Amino acid sequence: MREKRIRVLIAKPGLDGHDRGAKVVARALRDAGMEVIYTGLHQTPEQVVEAALQEDVDVVGLSILSGAHMTLVPRVRELLRENQAGEIPVLVGGIIPEEDARELKEKGYADAIFTPGSSLEAIVACVRDLAGSK
Amino acid sequence: MRQLVQELLQGNRRALARLISLVENDDKRKAEVLPELYRHTGKAYVIGITGSPGSGKSSLVDRLLESVRRDELTAGVIAVDPSSPFTGGAILGDRIRMQEHALDPGVFIRSMGTRGNLGGLSRATREAIQIFDAFGMDLVMVETVGVGQSEVDIVKYADTTVVVLTPAGGDSVQTIKAGIMEIGDIFVVNKADYPGTERTVAELNAMLDMKGAEDWRAPVLPTVAVRGEGVDRLWEAVLRHRELLESSGRLQAVRRERARQELADQLEHLVKSWIWEKIRARVPYEEMVEKIMARSMDPYSGAYRLLEEIDFPLPQ
Lengths: 134, 316
Description:
The complex is a heterodimer of chains A (134) and B (316). Chain A is α/β, with parallel strands linked by helices. Helices cover 44% and strands 17% of the residues of chain A. Chain A has a five-stranded parallel β-sheet with strand order 2-1-3-4-5, sandwiched between helices. In chain A, strand 4 (90-94), helix 4 (98-106) and strand 5 form a beta-alpha-beta unit. Chain B has two domains: 41-248, Rossmann fold (3-Layer(aba) Sandwich); 249-316. The model of chain B has no long low-confidence stretch (mean pLDDT 89). The interface between A and B is medium-sized, with 32 and 34 residues.
């Protein structure tokens, strides 16, 4: 029988080309038995949200190292809401200063934020948690 | 569930995505949905694209979509990638090469993992095709890695099957000929800017000529997908093949055979699920496995014993 699998979108919105982190996380999620839809570099928030909708993912993961997170993350959340998909949890990984992280979470733009040095185990557990809460 | 079907028929993309998940997960509730949808199907034309890993199938699909959209047709894409046999997880990366149509409302791309079970994948693919069809897509393209039985299976649902090869000094023809030569309606030698292209095309042509006279001789087309070269000719070949199928009545015959197959598959699936459900509920299956291991029982009489236990009306 085919059972349900957690599906996660790993996307890199914006203009930075540093995809090592995104790929490491994608592999860790795959090794944890999840299906990871990887879209590659330089995605617009519109592309990210359209992919999330078409792939019917349980969690959206955004990797942002460009410093544009205060623009990109709220935009992704807004677009999800506009498409009646506001309930899909958004996880952000990247270089996010603490006060930005707090704001993104407080305003409901991001459900979880991971900065450099986070353990893969913690990320996997968090994705599993978020997928369950959807 | 009713509402989801209504939304799908009205063109709601979220409903489309959700219904595909339902069949992917083999969710029980699909039994409420699929019979409802079936009468809205039968209109979409299905194109299967298969070939070895790295042969450029995704790029080719991306470019084909340009031709499709230029002709004002809409398309659903099912991109199948292998799941890990150990963890069941998968990285589904076909979208990376299909960026051109990421925001095109006439295109809908769905990635699927094989999830380890060939019968299950084959059924999920067939049902996803039906959902795209009922949604109103003019075309459904199914892209799969062309090694092994699963692909040959999936191709059963395609009206036109495109087999994608690469030059690779002609060796690719050797590795792929078993089973794959028979299923291709069109052969593509992609990455035709690499050396060995002419030889591969010639070898394929030689093999196809041995098949004898038919009303359709599969063409062998060189392409360079990343630059879009040869893709127009590929699209023309698909259209010609479709025309031939339709005008010769073969499409009807193929689809009748498919209906026959679907009915048989569904019957077997129902009976199998029913039997397993009963056996799981009533019979100490694992104990029997141990007995067979210890050679105190054999699997042949064991199977009979199991069916007796669940009161299956076996003929004497």
